[in-house]
Amino acid sequence: MKQFFLSTALAAVSGVAMTTVAVADAGHDHAIDQKGAVVSEASEAKVASFDILAAHVHQEGRQITFHMTTNGVAGADKPDSVGTFAGSSVWAYVWPTSLDPSAVGFEGGTGILALAATSHPDFDDTPLFDENNDGDTGNDGAHWHSHWVVLTPNEECGPGALAVRDVAEGETPEMPATWPGVPIFLDSPGYTPYFDGPEISINVVLANEEAVAIKGANYDGVTSALRVNADIHAPLLCVTDVFDIASGDLSLPGRVE
């Protein structure tokens, strides 16, 4: 599966716990209801909350909505805590795109730009935001939150595996204004994931010039697990499991309209 994930991605662009989740407005249109959505058949062999039925991205002016319909209650399952940052798990809903990373402020030409909603109970990487509203911005990594990430192939994660791109020592690549300062290509923009039964959605508002760049981009939907390197060295964050791919082959068949 790892080799498959890598090869198709390059062709396109070069322990469970329950959680309380935010609920979207009633009447919100789901990804599976949208014309042009990337659809996928249900599978009893997959965890229902990560079994993708449809992924969709659409644009209205400066607002871009990323959403995904699952075969279960989206956001209901999270990774178990291991008690340490090293070796900890990240579970994610991911929308890989054909956009250059520079579209959201990263150094251009550095990999596969993706939007992700993640949960990881053993660390917090959104220092500007207090997702659980308890007055502490450093203790809410388990709450679903959003990231832009840049993915690249990295054989040190395993044969054919992907990783969030590392920032090598001494390098100073371009980063978005809300980059949390970690040595990987990860941004913490503060866009709230919303949940409505089987649906997860994230509304992204971009500057006019960035929004123009989104129009016509290709996308797909993926659910996956990542793991922090037990030695806390590069590669820091590897993709370890792919739960589901909306298109089946990561060909990014969706098109932002």
In short:
The chain is mainly β and 257 residues long.
Layout of secondary structure:
Elements (H helix, E strand, L loop, with lengths): L1 H12 L2 E2 L20 E2 L12 E9 L2 E8 L7 E2 L9 E8 L15 E8 L25 E9 L8 E3 L21 E2 L5 E4 L2 E7 L2 H7 L3 E2 L2 E7 L8 E9 L8 E2 L2
Antiparallel strand pairs: 1-5, 2-3, 3-4, 4-12, 6-7, 6-14, 7-8, 8-9, 8-10, 11-12, 13-16, 14-15
- The count of strands amounts to 16
- What letter string, H or E per element, gives the SSE order? HEEEEEEEEEEEEHEEEE
Number of domains: 1
| Rg, Å, rounded | 17 Å
| Content of β-strand | 25-35%
Please give the largest β-sheet. Answer: 7 strands, antiparallel
Q: Distance between termini?
A: 30 Å
| Integer average pLDDT | 88
- Helix tally? 2
Morphology call: globular
Approximate helicity band: under 10%
Q: How does the helix and strand content classify structurally?
A: mainly beta
Give the low-pLDDT segments.
Answer: 1-27
